[in-house]
Amino acid sequence: MSMQRLTNVIRLTPRLSAVAMQRNNTTNASHSATVPHFNTLAITSPKPFVFHVELNRPKKLNAINREMWLEIKDCFEALAINPDCRAIVLSAAGKHFTAGIDLSSMLSLGQQLADSDDVARKGVVLERTIKLYQDSITAVELCPKPVIMAVHMACIGAGVDLITAADIRYSTQDAFFQVKEVDIGMAADVGTLQRLPKAIGSQSLARELCFTGRRFEATEAERSGLVSRVFADKEALLKGALAVAEDIASKSPIAVQATKENMVYSLEHTNQQGLDHIRVLNKLYLQSEDFAQAVAAQLTKDEKPIFAKL
Ligand SMILES: CCC/C=C/C=C/C(=O)SCCNC(=O)CCNC(=O)[C@H](O)C(C)(C)COP(=O)(O)OP(=O)(O)OC[C@H]1O[C@@H](n2cnc3c(N)ncnc32)[C@H](O)[C@@H]1OP(=O)(O)O
């Protein structure tokens, strides 16, 4: 459809536009988002359509225990379908972003394994645990709303798994990262080995980091592309991350979510498969009211359109 025809369509459908405006005015008039509650995560909605998720076990350096693994999954699955949420910032309370998996909960797992003498049954316990933790991290990647990680100080082990599942990563100058699994005698198994090489685009560096478990600082993380912006301190980091989230949240949720879905899909498919995928999405989405509204606004240099909830 040509631009001119689209503008005509929107002009010639006053009923549709009026209904959309009415619904949007109602939905945006007050900012009263439904915010889920968790024990290990603090969730707020500081701006319309923007959610802020904080890892919230500061006294335990936000070490990820079983409850937090479960809650990360539940949280991102809930935000995935929450129409008040269009962009998410994930940061952490206290001194560090996260010390990685809670090593005390690893000891409890060891105890659970010791309860059975049977190798196969121990294997099933481990299989289920690993799958649960993998699904927790993958919920971030599968969440259709863009997720911005805002990292300060230590981001260790499972923290790297977590941030590499996100769409955008920012950090403070004092941030440092460690793929520390080898140091606790295991191969990382919840996402770093799959996602880190793609995030930084260098197999050589990714393998060095994963084999050695060495600490790398914000400057190297930025140079390698693991983070795309480094801020002076945590206050500036959150301000910057929330501003980007607010900008994303002002766009058509159909457009943004289709963009994420296709970019995630394209990471693991050929260019042609990616093109086929977006073609199928867009044969539906280009019929959306959002598309007509956004094109008309671009053409007429109108104020930013207000999009209906999704
Ligand atoms: C199926 C499994 C899938 C997932 C696997 C994931 C694996 C991983 O995450 S591997 C990485 C595990 N984490 C670590 O090895 C981190 C070890 N900790 C540190 O390097 C430092 O503590 C840190 C840099 C995070 C912070 O240093 P800082 O000087 O600020 O504090 P500390 O004095 O070292 O620590 C304070 C107390 O916190 C306890 N602690 C630290 N990390 C953990 C942790 N991951 N789990 C539980 N507790 C932790 C530390 O022992 C201190 O305790 P206390 O002595 O009682 O004060």
Task: State the main characteristics.
Delta(3,5)-Delta(2,4)-dienoyl-CoA isomerase, mitochondrial; 310 residues; lipid metabolism; Enoyl-CoA_hydra/iso; globular; alpha/beta; 6-stranded mixed β-sheet; 13 helices; 9 strands; 2 domains; 3-stranded mixed β-sheet
Describe this structure in words.
It is found in: Peroxisome. Belongs to the enoyl-CoA hydratase/isomerase family. It catalyses: (3E,5Z,8Z,11Z,14Z)-eicosapentaenoyl-CoA = (2E,4E,8Z,11Z,14Z)-eicosapentaenoyl-CoA; (3E,5Z)-octadienoyl-CoA = (2E,4E)-octadienoyl-CoA. Its main location: other. This is Delta(3,5)-Delta(2,4)-dienoyl-CoA isomerase, mitochondrial. By secondary structure, the chain is an alpha/beta fold. The protein has two domains: 1-30 and 252-310, Lyase 2-enoyl-coa Hydratase, Chain  A, domain 2; 33-250, 2-enoyl-CoA Hydratase, Chain A, domain 1. It contains 13 helices and nine strands. The chain has helices at 3-11, 14-29, 66-80, 103-114, 119-142, 158-164, 192-200, 203-212, 218-224, 234-249, 253-267, 271-285, 289-300; strands spanning 41-47, 50-55, 87-92, 147-151, 154-156, 168-172, 176-178, 216-217, 229-231. The protein has a six-stranded mixed beta sheet, with helices on both faces. A hairpin with a 2-residue loop joins strand 1 and strand 2. Helix 11 (253-267) runs antiparallel to helix 12. The protein is globular. The two termini are 24 Å apart. The model is unreliable at 5-29 (pLDDT under 50). The site of ligand LH2PNOKW has 22 residues, from helix 4, helix 5 and strand 5.
